[in-house]
Amino acid sequence: MAQARSGLTRLGLGAAAAVPLGFLAVFFAWPVAAIIGLGLGRTGVGKTLADPATWDLVAFTLGQAAAATAVALLAGMPVAYLLARCQVRGRGFVRLAITIPFVLPTVVVGLAFRAVLGDAGALGIVLANAFFNVAVVARTVGGLWAHLDRRAEDAARALGASRWRTFLSVTLPALGPAIGSAAAVVFLFCSTAFGVVLILGGSRLRTLETEIYLRTVNLLDLSGAAALSLLQLAAVIAALVIGAVARRRREAQLKLRAAEESLRRPRGGEWFVVAGAALVVLALLVPIFGLLLRSLSTADGWSFDGYRALATGGTQGTLAVSGFEAALNSLRAAGDATLLALVIGLLAAIVLSRVRRRGAGEALDLVLMLPLGVSAVTVGFGYLVTMDALPGDFRTSPLLVPLAQALVVTPLVVRLVLPVLRAVDDRLRQAAATLGAGPFRVWREVDLPLALRSMLAAAGFGFVVALGEFGATSFLARPEAPTLPVAIARLIARPGELNEAMAYAACTLLMVVTGLAVLVIEKLRVGTGEF
User: Fold this and answer.
1) Mean pLDDT: which of 70-74, 225-229, 271-275, 426-430 is highest?
2) What is the residue-wise DSSP string for 74-131?
């Protein structure tokens, strides 16, 4: 009986794994391979790789990503300490304030920094990318910091070590796995940033991602785009491998520590760290308030003209629909993408939580994370090249946008739900199975109640991420059905004060919806998860 039940469980896991793998094969691997193959089949790839300008592009991409990662680490560490160790009023607001930037659409952040800094060049790109990712550092590092045993630090202090030396010799090495994991994720996000670089860099400053977009859309240089996509893919895989190693070390340390947070009122020099965290939060709020003020500012003074214009298509019919209709398109597409990503991501998380062979689990985890780092432009253009092979004219289907957005959301769902499933005591499952429960009933009675809050949080988190997805959506959204980020980009591209005011008003609308969603997510917050 036990062997039959074990065989049934393995069969069920195999079937569950087939769903996300099949989805990735058809809607990720196939389109990306088609574009790369199409490009490599033409002449010019070697010329692109031999061109010094290509390596200047690589250097700028990696350099700005490294600089933004360093800034995010420096800004996120005091916030991580406050959330992990300090019992102060306003901790909930701090958590909310750092989370909103991470889920804001890239177009919104780009315009917010342009409103505050103007033409800041590379500095603006670095600060905007760091702005996005303070939450990754604070949550990932803070999650481990909250579980570290204070007794090792207290012993070092009792032996005469200063607070700074204790941090460097005891705390920092213990936090190494979390810092490495956060740095790898932040570097991945920054090196593949699209909307921010497109808005703040313009035609002067380009990364691999924006150059792939330029060569694919404007120049139709598929061989050059394919060569750049291969370079980007190599960097992405390297970052994912480093992140996976660091994540495994982080999870191993978490298993050795108590699960309860140890909060206390700050003492002495700790108030300087709290003050540093407060300054970081204030700095994160500046672009948000700058965007809000810019949406109300016109040449004639303060006005709601931009918000009123959302009921129209902009100056001289810039948009085929009104701004409010574009917002409804975004909500529908994001809802469909979230539902799809939740099903696929949950199945993937179940499989990863049950796989006992480390190599197989890590390989599957790496494959699931790839859509976060591969050019969204490559994926979007790949859809247009390959989807006509499916039944019907799938290239014009409204389902393409939710499918592309689900690719981005699914890895985030996995990262939020998987730690909770891995934390479930396997003895509970064994006890339920001993009492005669089948695999599905074990999941329903044991895993589901414990993972439900994280699943709801993942759904809310995925929804706001899909709401602001711009890279692939800009390729796939039909002119008569643009999403709000695509509509904002079109408004910016067309001259006219009303178009610009409408773009900033639309950004503010997206920001408000995102903030409300984050409030709901925080109400459902659980103590594990990477973001």
Assistant:
1) 70-74
2) HHHHHHHHHHHHB--TTHHHHHHHHHHHHHS-HHHHHHHHHHHHSS-HHHHHHHHHHH
In contact, 447 and 501? CB cutoff 8 Å: no
Contacts of 159 (CB under 8 A, 6+ apart): none
3-state secondary structure 162-203: CHHHHHHHHHHHHHHHHHHHHHHHHHHHHHCCCHHHHHHHCC
**Which residue shows structure tokens 């002067």?**
204
AA identity, residue 457: A
Confidence check: pLDDT of 376 > 60: yes
- Cα angle 6, 8, 12 (rounded to 5 degrees) comes to 115
Domain spanning 1-41+305-531, CATH architecture: Orthogonal Bundle (1.10)
Q: 301 has which bridge partners?
A: 298
Q: Using CA atoms, how far apart are residues 166 and 125, in angstroms rounded to an integer?
A: 35
Single out the residue of 67, 132, 66 nearest to residue 287, CA to CA.
132
Tokens 């009123």 label which residue?
308
| pLDDT tens figures, 300-338 | 778 888 888 888 888 877 888 888 898 899 989 999 999
CA–CA distance, 516 with 513 (Å, rounded to integer): 5
Chain region(s) in the chain for CATH 1.10.3720.10: 1-41+305-531, 60-291
Question: How, if at all, do strands 297-298 and 301-302 pair?
Answer: antiparallel
Distance separating alpha carbons of residues 473 and 481, to the nearest angstrom: 11
**Tokens standing for 397?**
């289907």
What DSSP character marks residue 322? -
Write the pLDDT tens digit of every residue in 87-130.
778 887 888 888 888 877 787 888 888 888 877 788 889 999 99
Span of 19-33, 207-221, 439-453 with lowest mean pLDDT: 439-453
Q: How far apart, in Å, are the Cα atoms of 149 and each of 201, 249, 257, 521? A: 45, 17, 7, 29
Non-local (6+) Cβ contacts of 183 within 8 A are 69, 73, 137, 246
**Topology classification of domain 60-291:** MetI-like fold (1.10.3720)
Q: Which residues fall within 8 angstroms of residue 182, CB to CB, at 6 or more apart?
A: 73, 76, 136, 137, 140, 141
pLDDT tens-digit series, residues 453-499: 778 878 887 888 888 888 788 878 888 888 888 888 888 878 778 88
What's the CA gap between 503 and 491, in Å, rounded? 6
